[in-house]
Automatic annotation (TrEMBL):
InterPro entries: ClpP/crotonase-like_dom_sf, Enoyl-CoA_hydra/iso, Enoyl-CoA_hydra_C, Enoyl-CoA_Hydratase/Isomerase
Domain of life, source organism: Bacteria
Organism: Streptomyces indiaensis
Annotated protein name in UniProt: Enoyl-CoA hydratase family protein
Protein family: Belongs to the enoyl-CoA hydratase/isomerase family.
Amino acid sequence: MTLIARTRARAVETLALDAPHHRNALSAALVGELADALADAAKDPGVRAVVLTHTGTTFSAGADLKDPPPPEALVALLRQIVELPKPVVARVTGHVRAGGLGLLAACDIAAASTEATFAFSEVRIGVAPAVISLPILPRADPRALARFYLTGERFDAAKAQATGLLTTHGDDVDTVLDPILDGLRRSAPEALAETKRLLTTRVLEAFDRDAADLTALSARLFSSPQAREGMTAFLERRDPAWVV
């Protein structure tokens, strides 16, 4: 079963996470297929830019708790988006949770509809937003993020833009994106690649400096007793034992 739907229009390749029955959770299979699709787009001279979007009502619910990718695979995918020699634009019309926010932050431009909602839900299942912090913290406001990192609360597109997680938002995300995609189509491919390289220098420095430590932290937390209780509680639709 294909988990990534591919379409193309006027040199813009659209990759849609296409596992709506699993809320586009980041399974090992989906991560692998998305990495392959991005690699194909990177080497195709007919692709000027990539749009990363979704089917269904959820952009991504984060890691698939039944079939999670290894932390190293998620790190590699996030870095691949950041390093892709073509702009990657996120198009969001639904919910974004946990690891899905890592995908969002790895993109060069991120746009959402006003219907979209966001949450760093990791703390509520006994883990931390470790690996996804690699692209998030260099691009977002740590003070603005602190509340949402620490509480797991849901927040809307306006707050997501204020923190730096989104570039823009609006009632109709495609109306918002049209001038952006038009601008990318009018830009020279080599100039786009070099300009993206300028913009991603600090993000890649974070990967070089912190990826190993954050990967180890993620693996340790996901194997902890608190995480087992949190994930079990989530699957059983109950509060975990630590809720007071």
